[in-house]
Amino acid sequence: MQRGYVPFLYSVAVLGLAAAVPEECTIIEALQNKLTYQQRLQYMKHYFPINYTVNVQFEEVLRPSNITRLREQDVSELSLRCLWLSVNSQVLPKIRAVLLEKHPSWEYIQDLCVLFEQLDEEYEDCNQGKMDTTVWDVVEQVLTGDAGSSRKPVRPKALLDNCVKVMRMLYNESCASRSLPGQPERRQLPAHGGAIGGGN
Ligand SMILES: *[C@@H]1O[C@H](CO)[C@@H](O)[C@H](O)[C@H]1NC(C)=O
Ligand SMILES: *[C@@H]1O[C@H](CO)[C@@H](O)[C@H](O)[C@H]1NC(C)=O
Ligand SMILES: *[C@@H]1O[C@H](CO)[C@@H](O)[C@H](O)[C@H]1NC(C)=O
């Protein structure tokens, strides 16, 4: 891993991109490492009862198709990231809330929640003034958890699948050198094998 990084860091420095969004991409990379297919499958499917679902708001089901549609409407990338961030900052605690702390998936979800909290601190611009109105309205709805909003039962793995797919769409270019998208899944496994096996 370290060896691969040296030429990468060098080329970034040469291009003058080093200061662009370093902290953000570090967190995205950590999320990418935690959201591998194997981990999503194990923690969000195998450790849950068959066909288990979590109730979320309709607006909390954020798929790649939503992003494609919003991009066609010329919504800013910042707005899209803010939307993805707010949706998942709501969804992850909802999954955590159905688990006892001793559940083998609790720590996994907790780690993801912490990463999203860290990412949230990088996004001071996610406010009404800086975001596109259409997206802001959705974010507001998500954040207020409007009691009148329709709910939908969704499988926890599907929620995380959406999370990671949209993340790749939003960050594959700006954090491209951080091994997005997708291809490192198998390389990451050994590093996380210990954490998986070490569950309580
Ligand atoms: C789970 O859902 C599938 C359809 O999605 C259904 O065929 C299956 O019988 C369900 N299993 C249980 C145990 O409810
Ligand atoms: C995503 O699109 C679906 C329709 O395909 C819609 O119901 C949902 O509200 C959209 N979500 C967001 C966050 O825009
Ligand atoms: C990023 O993903 C989009 C599709 O969402 C694709 O069109 C684009 O080529 C990708 N960019 C890179 C650098 O992989």
UniProtKB/TrEMBL annotation:
GO terms for molecular function: macrophage colony-stimulating factor receptor binding. It comes from the Eukaryota. One of its GO terms (cellular component) is extracellular space. The keyword S-adenosyl-L-methionine does not apply. GO terms for biological process: positive regulation of cell population proliferation; positive regulation of macrophage differentiation; positive regulation of monocyte differentiation. Transmembrane segments: none annotated. Residues 177-200 are annotated as: Disordered. InterPro entries: IL-34, IL-34_sf. Residues 1-20 form the signal peptide. Keywords: Signal. PANTHER family: INTERLEUKIN-34. This is Interleukin 34. It comes from Mauremys mutica.
